[in-house]
Design brief:
This protein is an alpha/beta fold. Helix content is 38%, strand content 12%. It has eight helices and four strands, in the order αααβααβαβαβα. A four-stranded parallel β-sheet has the order 2-1-3-4, with helices on both faces. Strand 3, helix 7 and strand 4 form a beta-alpha-beta unit.
Length: 178
């Protein structure tokens, strides 16, 4: 049996997985009637200490919805140079929300809290773009699956919030970091 490790998106379900999917209880998730979706949303919200969760069909859509709620048109979000948000989402933040992205480089996608903090400008004045959010990716897809150090995440989160800058986690592959 060949195993394709190019990406998590080329994974094929086994016969047992297909059987489990066929037997799973289903309902209309739009009306809150799908017990599987409800359970997933509740579980993830609890894991992250949030009030609620929202299932989206793609990680890119989840990122763009979150970014749009955190950053107003004409403001910026900081992201790592090879992050999925800037490398694989087709400029969606600018196209759909009028949001500027600015990047910082890293070695293999590894987060160092001082890197985004050094380029953040939360009050850039009337002629420049102000930073209102910082996004991190865990695990870092184009960084070879780099798992972000929890202590760096904590330092970045505390410092950003102290400066009035929101945080976003692209957690499409968060289960790989668990």
């Amino acid at each position: 049996m060949a195993i394709d490790l190019r990406s998590d998106t080329v994974t094929r379900p086994s016969d047992a997985m297909r059987a489990a999917m066929a037997q799973a209880p289903v309902g209309d998730d739009v009306y809150g009637d799908d017990p599987t979706v409800n359970s997933l949303e509740e579980r993830v919200a609890a894991l992250f200490g949030k009030e609620a969760g929202l299932f989206t069909p793609t990680g890119s859509l989840a990122n763009q919805l979150a970014i749009r709620t955190l950053v107003k048109p004409g403001e910026e979000i900081l992201v790592e140079t090879r992050s999925h948000i800037v490398r694989a989402e087709l400029g969606a933040a600018a196209t759909f929300s009028g949001i500027t992205t600015r990047t910082w480089p890293s070695a293999d996608g590894l987060l160092r809290a001082e890197d985004p903090l050094a380029i953040a400008h939360e009050n850039a004045g009337p002629y420049l773009v102000s930073t209102t959010a910082i996004a991190i990716e865990n695990t870092h897809n184009f960084g070879g699956g780099t798992i972000q150090p929890i202590d760096e995440i904590a330092v970045l989160s505390r410092a950003a919030r102290a400066r009035g800058i929101a945080m976003h986690l692209d957690g499409a592959r968060i289960w790989n970091a668990h």
